[in-house]
Structure formats: C-alpha cells, structure tokens
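Last lecture ended with a question: if I hand you only a sequence, what can you say about the shape of the protein? Today we answer it with a concrete record. The protein is CPBP family intramembrane metalloprotease. Below, first the input exactly as provided, then the predicted structure, then a couple of comments.
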Amino acid sequence: MKAIQKQQWGLLIIPLELLIGAHLFRLSKNPKVTLLASTALVLIGALLMIWLFHDFLKEQWHHYRQKLFLRLLVSIILVVGAFLILQATRRMLPSELLQLRTPTGDSLQILSPSWTVLAAVIPFIAPFTEELTFRYLLLGQFSSKTWRMMFFVQSILFGLIHWNNFNGNVYAMIPYMVLGLYFGGIYLLSGNIWSSIIVHWMLNTMNSMLPALLLLFLKFF
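The predicted structure:
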C-alpha cells in the first residue's frame, strides 16, 4: 500500500470510531453490550493503525530503545507534567463551565469491578491510535511552513475527540486541547513517536487502568 493511501486510511479510523461509537450508545440500552462493542471497536482501530504504520513504528522503536532506561525515566517526569497541566488548566476555568449537562458513565456505574477493568482497556490502548493520528499524521507529515498551524489544529481536534466523554461540553475538553499541545511538543522535540505514545499511555494507565485494577483487588476484601 502506498504511503499516501496509508495516511488517508489512518486519518479515517478515529472519525469512524466516533461515528460508530455514537450509534452504539443510542442503539443499545445494555451497558455491558455497549462496553464490549466499544472496546472491540477501539481495539480494531488500534490494530489497524499498528498494521498500517508498523514499518514506521518499528524504525522509530529501534532508535527509542537505544537509550530506553533514560527515555522511560524522562517519560515518568513528563507524565507528572501532564498531570499538572490538566489540573492547572481545569483550575483556570470557571467550575460552572465544567459542569456536564448530564452525568457521564451512569450506565457503567452499575457494572462490577471486573467490567470496570474492561472499560479501562479503551484508554489503555487508545494512545497508539491517537498519537499516530494527531502527532504523526496531522503534525509530523506537514512541511515547515504549515507545521505551526497544524500544531494547534491537532491539539484542538485531540480535545474534541473526547466529545462523548463530556457529553459535548467543549469547555471540559479545553484541558485536553492543552494536553494535545503538550504531546505535540514532546513529539516534535524528541523526533520520535514512541516518546509521545509512552507518555500518553502512562498517563492513561494511571488515570484509568490502575484505579480499575485497584477496585478489582479491593473487591476480594
């Protein structure tokens, strides 16, 4: 498959996930069915992105692993920075603007801890699709004349893909737009997509997977 075709297909994956996912939530009233379908959808999208760009990922990983311990140490520090940026941005916004029109995740609150772990799989694997889309395709593929504009465009779009998470509250997505700038900066400064993937993955793991696993562990006590 030609490089341009790969890029075109890659740019379609997240919009298709959002479109199909929105219909899943409307069609199914069973939270378990919706969760299973959503997880499968995101997993398929991630696998497709990895398949499309496996050569690029392999080449970038070859360079990333040469100083793996140092890079992982830096990634941990950058994750702390990401947490601080999210908190600082939220505090700068009026709290009333961050209120959701309807509570999110009500249907998932009735699920057991084991199902909560399954729900955490989505943010656990999403960084692969999101970083390849926003940082590589929307930022790294543009010339030096347009990258400054795309630096902000990709961050805005990154925030907007969390539309379903916040029931369309754009104000609640602003911290993630700022986070998109942060991830974009990591990618540009490092010149390696794995730098932003690892930081993004660590952040999502600490925000979702680790708390879910803790709840599952506490279930037995």
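Comments.
1. Residues 79 and 202 are 7 Å apart (CA to CA).
2. The chain has eight helices and no strands.
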